[in-house]
Model the fold of this input.
Amino acid sequence: MEIAVINRSSRILSGHLWVFSNELAQSPKRFLPGALVELCDRKNTFLGIGYVNPHSLISIRILTKDREEIDKGFFKKRIAGALEYRKRAVKDRSSFRAVYSESDLLPGLIVDKFGDCLSVQLLTLGMDVRSEMIIEALDEVLSPKTIVLRNDSSSRALEGIKLEKKIVKGEISHDKLPQIREGNIVLEVDPLAGQKTGFFLDQAENRALFGSLAGEGKGLDLFCYTGAWSVKMAEAGAKTTGVDSSEAAVEQAKRNAQINSLSSKCLFIKADVFDFAKEELSKGSVYDFIVLDPPAFVKSKANLKEGLKAYRVMNSICMKLLRKGGLLATSSCSFHVDRLTFLEILRSAAKDANRSSRIIEVRSQAKDHPISLQVPETEYLKCVIMEVG
Done:
């Protein structure tokens, strides 16, 4: 195993798992892409073992701070440790994020468990070249009926690896997709064709809280995807309209309402969400409960200004659409928008809407998406639940 010398090691010693190219004493291009390297400082002090991608800004991602073999046994141990945490944090749930990258000391690996089905993302070259042993380890620890590889994330393109989707164990039938339970509701999940891994488990706890606050009235779910927020509001008694630009998502949302015998309370519309919201405002529509859960408007620092404006405009419209005392659950999954910035956006949106508001709770991602104190990049989701006056 080759040795990579780090010029600046303070961040690594504090627990971070990334080594950037400008932190190395030598060019990362001298290493074989995907290979394992030992990390040490200029005094030859051992710092850990990681895998290399010389073509990425993050040149090395650290797998361990110990001298140990990186084999199937290593991955089984890490996956089992991640599972033990979930047993403590989410207890009896059969569907949860089973592995969350750096937070589970497995950078580049995402695994969502939907009952007996695993949806797996290998986001980095270093994980991709070890895919066979990782899949075997997942199979042996979790014993799923089905394993789907969702290797179609754009981050793989940045790593220089091909995009693909495939089933490596079992089968997925469009007529009988996996189903998961959130409280008393059942939701259909499409791990092969849905967004990301097929479903957004990270909002599960936020949906539960908002559902407990909702009741009879009129609900609006913007960027509704497959209707989880809508069904949760409908379960609480609200007549809900869900809006999304994806026809496939809208059709699946309709099925989710039907599965829960809530079709009479749920209307789903395929439309551009911005256009729909502006039209509702022009018509003078009023709602009791609104959910705004958009995709990341800020995907990089380059479009920060444009993305912040989109958040401000949409939140202002939502506040104007709410009756006095109505409830808003608004979210941002943009890593480049931190919690304080998001709250400032909401203050500006309230000013634009000429509405007062008070925060019921500021929340983050669900506990099965744990935030590493040492790797702040693992925190991305902000969800603010508020009453608008």
User: Anything to note?
Assistant: The chain has three domains: 2-64, 72-169, 200-388. The mean pLDDT is 96.
